Amino acid sequence: MVELLLERVLQFALGLLRAAPLRDDGILGRRERLAGGFHNISGGAVDLEGNFYFVDARWQRIHRWSWADRRLTTVSDAPIQPVNVAFDHDGNLLVVSYAGSGTLFSIAHGKADSEPTLVAPQPAAARLPQRRRKRQRST
């Protein structure tokens, strides 16, 4: 079941899910096991090269599925308690972690085999009270 979920998440992330034909029971007409052995898949992000990254939270691993090579590799197995992944504008892999309170790690673009780096927390910009914002807009 987890392997089917991985396939569907990958197809959705690559924009293929909507175009795939559905059988009468609502299941994709053609299914193929891409990889197996996962316990708790979460997250999912596609890089600029079309590689699909996801987390197996139980084993604290981040995986990359290369659609072009049809190959799965482990990007990181550092004990950072990953739960979700995304990419920033520079192509760096961002990893949201259960460790701490909203901890964020980064893996540099093009260096997917390097250790995750802790991203320092940044304070949010102060908000102006509602009345002041309206007055500032009208000037």
Fold and architecture overview:
The protein is of the alpha+beta class and 139 residues long. The chain has a single domain (41-138), classed as Thrombin, subunit H (Beta Barrel). It is built from 2 helices and 8 strands. The protein has helices at 2-13, 130-138; strands at 41-46, 52-56, 61-66, 71-76, 82-87, 93-97, 103-107, 117-118. The strands form 2 sheets. A 4-stranded antiparallel β-sheet has the order 1-2-3-4, covered by helices on one side. It has a 4-stranded antiparallel β-sheet with strand order 5-6-7-8, with no helix packed on it. A hairpin with a 4-residue loop joins strand 3 and strand 4 (71-76). The radius of gyration is 19 Å and the shape is elongated. It starts with a helix and ends with a helix. The model is unreliable at 16-20 (pLDDT under 50).
Number of domains: 1
Helix content: 10-25%
Tally the beta strands. Answer: 8
Radius of gyration from the CA trace? 19 Å
Oligomer: single chain
Unreliably modeled segments = 16-20
Shape: elongated
Q: Tell me the strand percentage band.
A: 25-35%
How would you summarize what this structure contains?
The protein is 15% helix and 29% strand. It has two helices and eight strands; from the N terminus they run H-E-E-E-E-E-E-E-E-H.
Brief descriptors of the model:
139 residues; alpha+beta; Thrombin, subunit H; four-stranded antiparallel β-sheet; 2 helices
